[in-house]
Amino acid sequence: MAGRHYHHGNSPAAWTAVLIIFVGFSIGSAYTVMAEPLGVLAGAVVVALGGVVGLVMRAMGLGQATTLVKPTTGAAGSGVAAATVPAPATGEQEQEQATASS
């Protein structure tokens, strides 16, 4: 596992969704303190909107890329399914090569 690198969701879709959801929670929290139910509802709507925006952006190709990895354990034909894992982030391969050469 030492050689595997994961993307951890660093994509425009993930950042945008998280930012919108954070704003929605902030709105909902502020209106909770002020005891305004409609404001809390507005915050919940913004949170839901953030999730939808993230999914739409991912569908547009701005999300995390995935690659198919074959299982490393189990005999051939054992029925073990291949797992889908994130592709390496941009620049990680160059860093690995630079580290390996030094």
Structure keywords:
DUF6704; transmembrane; transmembrane helix; 8% strand; membrane; mainly alpha; elongated; HGxxPAAW family protein; 2 strands; 102 residues; 3 helices
Question: What's a quick, concise take on this entry?
Answer:
By secondary structure, this protein is mostly helical. Helix content is 57%, strand content 8%.
What report would you give on this structure?
- This protein has a two-stranded antiparallel sheet with strand order 1-2.
- The radius of gyration is 20 Å and the shape is elongated.
- 57% of the residues lie in helices and 8% in strands.
- The protein has helices at residues 12-33, 37-62, 92-101, and strands spanning 66-69, 83-86.
- The protein is mainly α.
- It holds the Pfam family DUF6704.
- Residues 80-91 have a biased composition (Low complexity).
- Residues 80-102 are annotated as: Disordered.
- The chain crosses the membrane at residues 12-32, 38-57.
- This is HGxxPAAW family protein.
